[in-house]
Amino acid sequence: MTTSDRDVPAGPAALRLQRPVDPGRDHLRGTPGEDRVVIVAYQDFLCPFCRRLRHVLIRLRKVEGDRLVYVFRHFPGERAHPGAELVARASEAAANQGKFWDMHDRLFEHDPRITERNVFELAAAIGLDMERFARDLVAAGTRARVDEDLEDGRRNGVTGTPTLFIDGHRYEGAWDLAALQEAIEPPIAARVKRSARAFASLPASGGLVLLLAAAVAIACANTPLAPSYLRLMSTSIGIGPVGGMLAMTVREWFAEGLLAMFFLLVGLEIRREMTGGALAARRAAILPIVAAFGGVVTPALIYLAFNRGATAHGWSVPTATDVAFTLGILAVMGSAIPSGLRVFVAALAVVDDLLSMAILAIFYPRAFEPVFLLGVLVSMAALAALNRARVYVRWPYALVGLVLWVFLHAAGVHAALAGVALAIVLPTRPPPSAATLLAQAATALADLEHAEAEARRAGHRGGFEQLPIWDWASLNLTAASERLLSPADRIERAVAPWSAYVILPLFALSATGVSLAPDLSSPDAGHVFFGVFVGLVVGKPLGILLASGLALGSKAAVAPAGVTMRRFVGAACLCGVSDTVALVMVDRSFTSAADASMAKIAILAGSAAAALLGSVILVGLRPRGHSR
Asked: Does domain 2-200 have CATH number 3.40.30.10?
């Protein structure tokens, strides 16, 4: 595989073709139609892998007949193959005379060590007007045509050749004939998987699923389904002895169990940014820490301004930020939100959660069991030892992480923080040498190809996978591919889709099912409502902005790159979206059921208002005609 010498996008590869096939512009072999399969190939005429794939595509066309439409798009890698841009322009110059495919075939069949003289010889051989060909070869329009394909490829996340899209979906499977046939005629399971991957490629897909789950929970809690919903969420599920410490309700399992996986992902992202990203500088990392403290203190003071006496004990309720919902809302907005702002919000929310756990442990110690903190310390020490010993196998970290989760839960600390602790110690590796891995993979495949050829010469027609060298080649290729990712990277990739489409939606389904029917029997109900509501909608962003302003003004911190004041204000408003920790604080703060009910309604109302206010501020940044 070869890469273009132009800059490539930093983001993930697009799973859907960004520009559809245009028969009036693209080079097609075949006629598109409802019953046709279209393969778009970004290729380089001098790429040896494109040359090998071409023979597979020829065989595929023979098998599929007119049903297959082949589309060629340029992606020349001039640095890897000097002359690649020249031959790409030569094919376009031939296309101006209606002979693109003649030149296409001649270029692929010619020795890759091609010169300008060879190009003119090929042009003459296919009967082109040589004077016109010479003019078109260097014309600005010809260069622009090649560059357009190259830019299209970059927008699709193409980094090397060949890259295929089948019916508009990026193909990442093997390049052999059988694999391509399966991709063209996929079974039902493969079609479902392809559709799911296409949906997952939408920037806002995870946020949309999260918000949909929250809407379903609110609907369930405020309709005749409420008794069944509450019964389900309150069902106790225990692991181990009856009445043991691992007996929790469904809602608690979702909040402490499943959410630990989400905190693992957030922790890995923050760790990556702190080691080589937006938070790598000390002053950049200070800002979310200072902002989180401001976002806790200010709403607590605002709540106390509304409440005296018994209800003052609920000062902590408006202090908690929901990282899952806040990042979900930012995800819905897609690429309009700079990555630096997302990282800032994620880091702030993690610090906020740590502060919330400390508040629960210090000010509401009803379930706090400090004796289990020894187990927490031992588990953390074991994880650090695994990291120091450079253990790259994943299961020991998962096992010790599970033990850590149990001890955190037993100590009365929110066990989801085990995910953050695990993210800190998961091992990374220095980037591998691409040349070494290429040599390993190339050696394995070359020896396998040689063994297959020898077997055929000896009269064997099949069963090559039974050869001893097959296992050797497979092990070497697996080792080379796995070396590209560290254990932390592999865990992040494995957990990310589960977090976005299963864990967070289940958490939202359990956390946001609050009854909207107010209980006004308490004389302090109004004070509680406004203390929580104003604390979230006004106190949270005000505290974050004031603390951030002090840190930035004193030069102790620096702002995230590419983030304007308006974006910063919008993100600060979104941090007013509260979470399940606030609901736990409600249950531990209020002895009056009426006050507790009003506080929960205020959490929901304040979170909705904060989400709406922050979204309006951020969405207002988009220029007119912005499509996303």
From this structure: yes
